[in-house]
């Protein structure tokens, strides 16, 4: 994100939904059966670094939005005039 005022409060949020099924034929209606953990989170790097694994990234808590929409939110304070946001999911 460009043209950010250093020192300004930042908030980034995203909605996520996951579906997990060990075999597609077991889940014809689109709901999870024997699901894996489908972890998601969002992050802000207030220094503008584009490395998701940098120590400067501020991450939200993990969430596991199986079969429903959930929102993740994170806040930080801009250190430069550019910041980077990240969406993370596993597996």
Order of helical and strand elements: EEEEE
> Strand order within the widest sheet?
3-2-5
Q: How many H/I helical runs?
A: 0
How many domains would you count in the coordinates? 1
Parts with pLDDT < 50 across at least 5 consecutive residues? none
Q: What is the 3D shape?
A: elongated
- Name the beta content range: 35-45%
Largest sheet: 3 strands, antiparallel
Mean pLDDT: 93
Q: What is the radius of gyration computed over CA atoms, rounded to a whole number of angstroms?
A: 16 Å
Structural class: mainly beta
Overview in brief:
The protein has 91 residues and is mostly beta strands. The protein has one domain (9-90).
What layout of secondary structure does this protein have?
Layout: E1 9-16, E2 39-45, E3 58-59, E4 70-77, E5 84-90
Antiparallel strand pairs: 1-4, 2-3, 2-5
């Amino acid at each position: 994100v460009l043209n950010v005022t250093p020192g300004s409060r930042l908030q980034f949020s995203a909605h996520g939904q996951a579906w997990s099924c060990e075999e597609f034929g077991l889940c014809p209606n689109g709901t999870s059966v024997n699901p894996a953990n489908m972890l998601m989170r969002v992050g802000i790097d207030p220094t503008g670094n584009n490395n998701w694994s940098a120590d400067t990234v501020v991450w939200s808590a993990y969430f596991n939005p199986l079969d429903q929409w959930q929102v993740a939110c994170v806040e930080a304070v801009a250190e430069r005039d550019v910041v980077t946001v990240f969406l993370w999911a596993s597996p």
